[in-house]
């Protein structure tokens, strides 16, 4: 489902198989206050509506309802052409698997179940002005060395599971991740939940594999005519990160088939002064010039507390130290 949201394919079909070359190009002009903690800035910014990526996906019909599938994809910056993850050939997703009446099993580098079950209940999806940085630490969006299962719909229920590890000899728990998620859909209503446990890693200089991070999430959505209301709560505990709770809510409204409005609020609550209790307010307008091309305007205001440094731009870095920040971005997205 997440993959369908992010891609707009161009298929090259062959006998019993197909290969799809696809891409998303997204760039805009951004204005932010306190961009360096003090001064405002205007810059050309990659990724405002959806991440910029290109890749290949394919399927082969093996008969009897069974198919082989794969995806190879990379993220990069439209502003400077650099890879999203330097040094990686396919740093977005790279997996292969089987799909059939039993569901889908894939192995490789792929989206975490945590990402699957939060992004679909986020009013902004994966827009850069949104709450994914609070709900999904950057290292938790995509899992290396992972095996993932997703069931077909069973009476409206879809189940997901994932396991991954660093592959360190003699230390199976190094970087080990266990995830279990479920989603239920019935008419206009849908509900999703996920439990995740991740251990630290063993390296040449440190060993945190005995420590872990636990995350639990519940998200819900309800569609009323052209409007969709969404909300959720996430709780993070453990040794690897400061404990926190994130509560969010908002909605999307289709004014016309070409025009959509989005708005959301994300509230973080933590006793750790570096995390604090920041509140992020975001709003967006998306106008479709065609099926493949969209214009968008994002705006956000981050109200920080204590020593928190929540930025308006997702995964942004600025030494705000309790100061507020405003940002706005006007951009274009094109899919091929």
Automatic annotation (TrEMBL):
It is a multi-pass membrane protein. Residues 12-305 form the Porin domain. Keywords: Cell outer membrane, Ion transport, Membrane, Porin, Signal, Transmembrane, Transmembrane beta strand, Transport. One of its GO terms (biological process) is monoatomic ion transmembrane transport. GO terms for cellular component: cell outer membrane; pore complex. One of its GO terms (molecular function) is porin activity. InterPro entries: Gram-neg_bact_OMP (IPR050298), Gram_neg_porin_domain (IPR033900), Porin_dom_sf (IPR023614), Porin_Gram-ve (IPR001702), Porin_Neis (IPR002299). It comes from the Bacteria. It is found in: Cell outer membrane. Homotrimer. This is Porin. It comes from Paraburkholderia antibiotica.
